[in-house]
Design brief:
The complex is a heterodimer of chains A (about 130) and B (about 170). In chain A, the strands form 3 sheets. Chain A has a 4-stranded antiparallel β-sheet with strand order 3-4-5-6. A two-stranded antiparallel ribbon of chain A has the order 1-2. In chain A, strands 7-8 form a two-stranded antiparallel sheet. Chain A is an alpha+beta fold and about 130 residues long. Chain A is globular and about 45 Å long. Chain A contains 3 helices and 8 strands, in the order E-E-E-E-H-H-H-E-E-E-E. In chain A, about 25% of the residues lie in helices and about 35% in strands. Chain B is about 45% helix and about 15% strand. Chain B has helices at about 15-40, 45-55, 100-110, 120-125, 140-150, 155-160, and strands spanning about 5-10, 75-80, 85-95, 115. In chain B, helix 3 (about 100-110) links the parallel strand 3 (about 85-95) and strand 4. The mean pLDDT of chain B is about 90. The chains are: A alpha+beta (about 130), B alpha+beta (about 170). Strand 2 of chain A pairs antiparallel with strand 2 of chain B.
Chain lengths: ~130, ~170
Amino acid sequence: TVGAVAVDAEGNIACATSTGGMLNKMEGRVGDTACIGCGGYADNRVGAVSPTGEGEAIMKVTLARLILFHMEQGRSVEAAADEALAYMKDRVGGLGGVVVVDPQGEWSVRFSSLQMAWAAAQQQTLHYGLYTGE
Amino acid sequence: MLPVLVVHGGVGIIPKERVQLSCAGVQAAVRGVYSKLQGQGSAMDAVVEAVTLLWNDPHFSAGLGSVLNAKGEVEMDAIVMDGRYLASGAVSAVRKVANPVQLARLVMDKTSHLCLTGEGASQFARSMGVPEVPEESLITEYARMRWKKNLAADANPVECQMGKMG
């Protein structure tokens, strides 16, 4: 799975996610990516999320929309992502990762798995990482 | 501080020999697209272009280099969403289409639906003039190796792809 979130100079927000699915999946198995609110969600008033991970778990907790609910309740992009990923791990035992952005340009990269390749650009700085805590 | 672009290349175990290229891939995608965002490009264009760049990178399991289904075939899912109007488009279980994220955007822009799946998505692609690509062109040796390795009865594909719980 690969994904992106962006907020442009006008403050418009968007997300995109694309995947080949899960290794050796049953033919016809569809994961979270194509399900709105799970494999992606974007709202100019709140923010955008592109998730990746165990699709069935992401769908059970509607991970993308859940993160934006937390942000609507005032959590930061990081806290909202952490709370939602912890809930998914605790409630349905699923691992995953997300990239999140809000209309003010606050952004976060969080994941409960061991690795997630990511990169972010803001102003003249390129950020990137792979392991937790980078 | 606007604009901002953030991309990911999926979670899960990345073998050591692929780590550097995976990290390079996400950085290249951001570098390639961010300058357009700074030049007043739209967020929607930026996310579609960034995902397209990653899709075409065989070191990610999205498009070229997709993981295979139980029959050794490629079925892809994609979604886009535009925060201005809560507009969205998605395709699922689509085959032989390059850059399904662009097809997802056509679903958003050209239909009143949110998701098209399987053969219907392929027919829509043809109606939009999106070229069909040979399935073989989407399958890498690495993906085929992982598929074969996980055909064994005692294999655990989820654990193989995601790694053990952290």
